[in-house]
């Protein structure tokens, strides 16, 4: 999942077949998942244990499947029924909850790694901190939450701003997390990937995928004109995507309320 939440509107998701086509095209044309895996791999390498992995909003599973190979057990929380059904069919060893993170009940399960990649956009900003707090409660000692979000700067961010109100309050979120869990527990990494297509139609499809809301199909000609004006690259099209990887570690023997304030 990726893209901004259009402000003050009701999100109208793509039909499953259309979403799968867009997701497949994005994955083929973007370097994102490979770079994300490298960054996540560095986090995994520092974990003392690799018993349980939780992926929240696993989408097409392009991160889930390779990361799961590093853990004894994988649990998925995926609200999209058809996506969840695919996981159940293809990976019966995974435990799949067809629910939103807000609604799911994982009882006292604890995880060494919790991944939440491009999911926060589906949640109101005022609920981001409480959403992360729920993740934190399910961390094992020395476990890590890895959250991936679109950066508020860069070419994709500028594309978003040209078509919808867009902001990622990453500074405010990081500040709140440091106050909650301590400076030593919170880290930020910045990375950039490229999206390249050979045709304008493919880049427009990726633009619609990034924007999330299928109502933007009515503005496909405007989106095409934007890419013509700003992202022609040789015989194709290229746009750079700036992203942030936010890591929250659970420091042993320090409860949430006892985390040092900085």
Describe this protein's structure.
There is one protein chain. By secondary structure, the protein is of the alpha/beta class. It has a domain of 183 residues: Rossmann fold. 37% of the residues lie in helices and 23% in strands. It is built from 9 helices and 8 strands. Strands 1, 2, 3, 4, 5, 6, 7 and 8 form an 8-stranded mixed beta sheet that branches. Strand 4, helix 5 and strand 5 form a beta-alpha-beta unit. The longest helix is centred in the first third of the chain and has 14 residues. It is globular.
State the CATH class of the domain at 16-153 and 166-199 and 240-250: Alpha Beta
- Following the backbone from N to C, one meets helices and strands in this order, namely HHEHEHEEHEHHEHHEE
- Rg value: 18 Å
Helix content bin: 25-40%
Q: What ranges have pLDDT less than 50 throughout 5 or more consecutive residues?
A: 1-9, 257-262
Classify the fold: give the CATH topology of the domain at 16-153 and 166-199 and 240-250: Rossmann fold
Q: Structural class given helices, strands, pairing? A: alpha/beta
Main sheet attributes: strand count, strand direction, barrel closure = 8 strands, mixed
CATH architecture of the domain at 16-153 and 166-199 and 240-250: 3-Layer(aba) Sandwich
Query: Globular, elongated, flat, extended or rod-shaped: what is the shape?
Result: globular
Number of helices: 9
Q: Termini, distance in Å?
A: 33 Å
| Estimated share of beta-strand residues | 15-25%
